[in-house]
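Marked as duplicate of an earlier ticket. Keeping the data here for the record.
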Amino acid sequence: MARKVLFFCPDMAAMAKNIADKANKKKRRIELAEITWGAFADGWPRLFIRDIKKHRRCKAYFLASFSMPGDIFAQLGIIYALARYEVKSLTIVLPFFSTGTMERVDNEGEVATAMTLARMLDAIPGGGPGFGNARIVIYDIHALSERFFFHSVVPRLETAIPLLLKKLEKLKKAGEKIAIGFPDDGALKRFGKHFPDYPKVICGKVRNGDKRIVTIKEGDPNGYHIVIIDDLILSGGTLLECGKALRKAGAKKVSAYATHGVFPEDSWRKFLHGKKEELFDNIWITDSCSHMAKLLDGQGPFQVLSLAKLIKKMILTDGKCKSTSAGKKGKKNHA
């Protein structure tokens, strides 16, 4: 059986160690590779993959972080190189597809940079014999249609919602009356199927003169702990307005979950406890944007749910097929 080796960028070092530790506790080994991330005097990357010969014919996984544009070039250098060093397979784990909100063009001259980044990943060269195509794993991509931006690389779209479901089960056992809120119909279509056993409350924007006001389109939040679900939080303006509308309509508590806490220009400060109006009891994010997760975990309403467990499971089960009961019965009959 091929060894499974996890390569990682500096920003994801803590998550990579967490993944390996979780696997090795159960004696299911994921090895951590070593990369030197240096720079020449002119600032360009000086990269070195240690013990590369040892990793030939391994199943290679690269844990990437493209949250900061300046970090992408060096990581692509490593990714392109790994494909040339005769690894058996290469999977790029990119928890946050950072250009996902820039997937369409509404005006002449605009550039869809989600397509640009997909092309850069599509340029991963072919590997040795039996390598096939590289794969990329993305959690809660902003627009599902973006999977068709990839042609050479095989996209595998995953969700981090199971992390939240476990949290909700604990709240229910503690006596919380939970309902799931959605800021718009788009979020409902994306995530509604994950919450079949919970009442739902759907918000939407209506125009009032020059302003857009968030209203409750469907469902009754009165007396419930509403948990608003979305894929990411940017400025947080819509989320704040949803929180106000739900509180006004009688919600006992309001919390929020987003897989990717992006929060440009320190927009997270709007949600800190200690303000005049504390709308949110909890805001759960994952560590897909690791620099933001480190900053926010434990501040005010923010709690970080780590992707490490999901990524560990994905790596350990990679390439395995579950036997069906019918298949087992068929083998028995054949014998």
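See parent ticket for discussion. The longest strand covers residues 200-208.
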